[in-house]
C-alpha cells in the first residue's frame, strides 16, 4: 500500500493531476487508502478561493505587494504545488469538475455560468460526487459559501425557474424548497449562496434548501464603496440580513460552527468541509476591519481578508486539537479577473498572474494555473514543492 507521501509524489508527477480535478482524486484516494491501511480517516477541508491568481500569494510570488502570512505558513507546513491547473478559466465548470471528477465539457450545458435563479444543477441526480462518496465512508459533509453549479427555484404555482436576471428572481416562491443544490449532491449541511454572492441578482443566504430571509428590496448601489474594483454588482434584490461587505466573515462563522459542533457531538466521525469563498471575486468589498490593512488598495485588502480566513480555520483546528487529523487543501477556481489585474498592475505594481501570461477566461496559463497547497501534519513532509521548474 502506498504511503501518503508516496501518493502525493506520484500525484505531483502525473500529467492528469495538472488539472485541479486532482483534488477530487486526492480526497477520495486518501480516504480509501487510509481505510485500507487501517489508518484513521482524516477530516478533510477544501478552501476554494474565487478568482485568486497564482501571483496573489506571497509564497508563489516574491514580488507580491500583499502579505499572506497564513497561506505562507500553510505552505511551509505542507506541500505547495507549482503546476496545478483549474479545469476551466471560469468558476462554474471548475466547481462541477471538483465535485464530480468529470470535465464539464462532457455535460450538456457544461460551459454554463449561472446567474440569479439560473439552473437546473449541472450535477445529475445519479452522478457520484465527492461528498456522496465520503458519506458512504462515514463522513459528515458540509458546503459553506458559493455554490454556482446550478439549482432550481420554483414560482408560486410550482413551475421551475431556470433564468438569470431580475425578473426571474422576482418570480421565486421562497416558501418552496430549492432543488439540485448541495443537499441533493451529497452534503448534509449547506449555508451559502446560489451564485456569486455579491454580483448575481439574488443577494440572499440559502440555509439548507430554503432562503429563511428572502430578498425584499432592490440593491441600493449608491451606498456601496466606490473604487475601480467595485463595478460588478448587478441590480438585484437583497435580503435584510445580507451585508455585501460581511459575506466572507459570515461564511467563516458558519464553517467554524460546523467544525466545532461536529467535534462536540460526533468526535469519532470524520468530516468533509468545502469552504467556498466570495473572496476575491469582484467587487472587492473587504470587511471593515480589513480596510486599509495593505498598501495595495481594496483588492489587496480583500486578499488579506482571505488570508485571515484561512488562518482562522487553521486556528480553529489547533484549538480543537484536530489539526493533525485534518487534511487541509487550499486552491482557486481560476486565475485573476481581467479588470483586477489591469488595475492592480497599474495602481499598485502587483501582478496577480505573475509569472504567467493571461488572466481569467484566457487559455493562457494565467487563466488556469492556480495555487494549490496541501497540508496534513505528520503525514505530509513540511515545506515541500512540486515541479522544480518554477522559481
Question: Which structural class do you get from the secondary structure elements?
Answer: alpha/beta
Name the CATH architecture.
Answer: 3-Layer(aba) Sandwich
β-strand number: 14
- What is the radius of gyration? 20 Å
N- to C-terminal separation? 33 Å
CATH fold type: Alkaline Phosphatase, subunit A
Mean pLDDT: 90
Count of helical stretches:
9
Q: Tell me the CATH superfamily.
A: Alkaline Phosphatase, subunit A
Order of helices and strands: HHEHEHHEEEHEEEEEHEHEHEE
CATH class: Alpha Beta
Provide structural commentary:
- With 391 residues, the protein is α/β, with parallel strands linked by helices.
- A hairpin with a 5-residue loop joins strand 4 (153-154) and strand 5.
- The protein has helices spanning 4-13, 22-37, 69-77, 91-100, 130-136, 166-170, 247-265, 297-319, 338-348, and strands at 43-49, 79-85, 140-146, 153-154, 160-161, 189-193, 202-203, 206-207, 217-218, 237-238, 271-276, 326-332, 369-375, 384-386.
- It has a single domain, classed as Alkaline Phosphatase, subunit A (3-Layer(aba) Sandwich).
Amino acid at each position: 500500500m502506498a504511503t501518503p507521501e508516496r501518493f502525493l509524489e506520484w500525484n505531483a508527477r502525473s500529467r492528469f493531476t495538472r488539472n485541479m480535478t486532482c483534488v477530487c482524486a486526492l480526497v477520495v484516494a486518501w480516504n480509501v487508502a487510509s481505510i485500507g491501511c487501517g489508518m484513521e480517516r482524516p477530516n478533510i477541508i477544501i478552501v476554494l478561493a474565487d478568482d485568486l491568481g497564482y501571483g496573489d500569494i506571497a509564497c508563489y510570488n516574491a514580488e507580491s505587494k500583499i502579505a499572506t502570512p497564513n497561506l505562507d505558513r500553510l505552505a511551509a507546513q505542507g506541500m505547495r504545488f507549482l503546476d496545478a491547473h483549474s479545469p476551466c478559466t471560469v468558476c462554474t465548470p471548475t466547481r462541477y469538475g471538483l465535485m464530480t471528477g468529470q470535465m464539464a465539457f462532457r455535460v450538456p450545458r457544461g460551459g454554463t455560468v449561472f446567474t440569479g435563479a439560473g439552473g437546473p444543477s449541472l450535477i445529475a441526480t445519479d452522478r457520484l460526487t465527492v461528498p456522496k462518496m465520503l458519506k458512504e465512508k462515514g463522513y459528515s459533509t458540509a458546503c459553506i459559501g458559493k455554490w454556482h453549479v446550478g439549482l432550481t427555484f420554483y414560482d408560486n404555482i410550482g413551475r421551475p425557474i431556470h433564468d438569470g436576471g431580475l425578473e426571474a428572481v422576482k418570480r421565486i416562491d421562497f416558501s418552496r424548497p430549492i432543488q439540485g443544490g448541495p443537499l441533493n449532491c451529497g452534503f448534509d449541511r449547506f449555508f451559502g449562496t446560489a451564485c456569486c454572492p455579491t454580483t448575481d441578482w439574488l443577494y440572499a443566504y440559502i440555509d439548507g434548501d430554503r432562503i429563511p430571509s428572502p430578498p425584499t428590496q432592490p440593491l441600493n448601489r449608491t451606498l456601496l464603496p466606490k473604487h475601480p474594483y467595485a463595478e460588478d454588482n448587478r441590480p438585484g434584490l437583497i435580503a435584510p440580513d445580507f451585508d455585501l461587505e460581511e459575506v466572507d466573515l459570515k461564511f467563516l462563522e458558519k464553517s467554524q460552527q460546523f467544525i466545532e459542533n461536529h467535534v462536540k457531538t460526533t468526535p469519532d466521525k470524520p468530516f468533509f468541509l468545502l469552504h467556498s469563498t466570495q473572496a476575491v471575486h469582484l467587487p472587492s468589498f473587504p470587511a471593515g476591519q480589513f480596510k486599509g490593512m495593505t498598501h495595495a488598495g481594496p483588492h489587496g485588502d480583500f486578499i488579506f481578508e482571505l488570508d485571515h480566513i484561512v488562518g482562522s480555520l487553521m486556528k480553529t483546528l489547533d484549538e480543537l486539537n484536530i489539526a493533525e487529523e485534518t487534511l487541509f487543501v487550499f486552491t482557486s477556481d481560476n486565475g485573476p479577473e481581467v479588470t483586477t489585474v489591469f488595475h492592480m498592475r497599474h495602481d499598485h505594481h502587483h501582478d496577480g498572474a505573475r509569472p504567467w501570461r493571461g488572466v481569467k477566461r484566457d487559455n493562457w496559463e494565467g487563466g488556469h494555473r492556480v495555487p494549490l497547497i496541501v497540508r496534513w501534519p505528520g503525514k505530509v513532509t513540511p515545506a515541500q514543492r512540486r515541479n522544480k521548474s518554477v522559481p
